[in-house]
Write a structure and sequence with these properties.
heterodimer, A: 288 residues, mainly alpha, ABC transporter involved in vitamin B12 uptake, BtuC, two-stranded antiparallel sheet, 3% strand, globular, B: 324 residues, two-stranded antiparallel ribbon, 71% helix
Chain lengths: 288, 324
Amino acid sequence: MDLYLHLIAQGLAIGVLTGILYVLIALGLTLIYGILHIVNFAHGEIYMLGAMGVFYVYVVLKWPFAATLVVILVLSLLLGLVVERAFFRSLRGQWLQLVVASVGLSLIIQSLGWIAFGIQEKNVPSFFTGIVSFGGVRLPTERLIAAGVGAVLVVLLYLLVYRTKVGLAMRAIEEDEETARMLGINADRVAALACAVGFALAALAGAFVAPIYSLNPGMGGEAILMSFLIIIVGGLGSITGTVLAGLLVGVVQSVGAVLLGAEAAYGLVFVMMIVVLVVRPAGLLGRA
Amino acid sequence: MKRGLLGLLIAALVALPPLGEPYVLHVAIVVLIHVVYAEALYVIMRMGYLSFGHAGYIALGGYASALLATKLAISPWLGFLAGGLVAGLFAWALGAVTLKLRGIYFSLSVFAFAEVVNAVFRAFEFFGGPAGIAAVPRPSLFGTRLNTHLQFYYVVLAVALVSLFFLYRLQWTRFGFTLLALRTPATETLAESIGINAARYKTFAFIASCFFCGVMGAVHVHYLRFVSPFVFTFFLSTDLMVYVMVGGLGSYWGPLLGTVLLTGLGEQLFAAGYYKSFVYALVLLVVILALPGGLISLPRLFRRGGRDERTLPTAAEASAARER
């Protein structure tokens, strides 16, 4: 029995740490959904590219870790700007085409990934080794640091959206785009920025999980699945909702995996989503 | 004229196959199966909803029939029906919850559902685990097992023609017209104001769509003689969406054209999966950006001298407004 409790405590802790990384990916989706009203299916592939970036720049080219992060950050921001300009802007307002285009983009990046990176799983050595122990709950330092950096990024995003002028413009567009445009907000530029920041969040999340998982071009699939479940549970477009739901999903999945096994834990998270949809259709903190 | 052409086509589909090589028959079977999937998906897309998880319902149908045949030795003919019913039942359950909400909730939930279905099939030994179910028998007719390509081709053709006819006729019923009215939020409100229960109509449409996917999924599995969690994946769901979008949302013949062209030619040209998926996605993006009406809008485009002036909005255009 004691062992059982201990396992649950361990699962809880791992769940929170995983949850923060989920939050990072899902926040990018939330941001893009809030401004552009699209659910970006290519998000998982950006996450994959971030992880692959660490492998190729840090492991193969042997650049320092900080430089690797800067490269990934700059490239993902640029990619966000390009994708917004090339696809999302010309399709604005056409919901169906936008979502389908993002699916097309996701397929293109993933299939190119398989062709370019090969099917061989890639492993990145840990940036930090060691285990930290809190009253019997043991956590790898690496995960703690990844979650810590993730938490800092979440706070930075909060500050960007709620404390800066650009953030104000974002929220204005989300609330009423037409009025925002009339008040002189350059909605196209704000949308491009939101897209770039969203991509960067996904790529950085990918970079931090690189040493934790084996990497392959299909790894975005699981990330995008969890992110979708999270943004539905949290409420589409709600940043606080996404953070709450991300942690919740992380914990449910991780404790569920301890008690029922990994595959059944997916089912558990899905059941949670259905319960939320029935009880609170707009999500925990979403507006109907 | 149109009717005559259609008759000729069906006559050719019935009469020509005995002349074909097994490989040609294989391609014909694959194309027919996918045409039904795509037309079933079109029922949903025509009312402005996207499904990223139809593969999940196809898998449900396939697994249901495979389990019945291998564990209980129930005839595949009944299995086909059971596959459709199981898929329809799950569609009802998810549709009842999500189709009351905005379209995106539906799309994401269906996507998640399909992933979870595959995860469950992988997890439990009862469903065969990651290896799936092998030795799924072919159906028999008058004491003969339909083991050759030619024999099974006629099974597929029969199921496909019945399904396609039903899905075609569905458009021109009161039910089909009502679905069309639900395409935009404005007309949906209008429809509801005269007492139409929009959520119920949408749920029924989703059930019908998944029923035919389930039936064809069962046929598909009995054709392959095995099923595993890796047969009906997210890539099938997106392929189907590509067929419909490339063919065009404007008419019933769009998805059919898209499927025949892309599966018929695609299977031959790109044996390697990743190249195929790359080319499909590229074609998809080009069509979305340059030819929003899909291939089916090409003749009309030429007739009008370059500019497409439809009087009725296409489903795609109409659904554009849905999310706002």
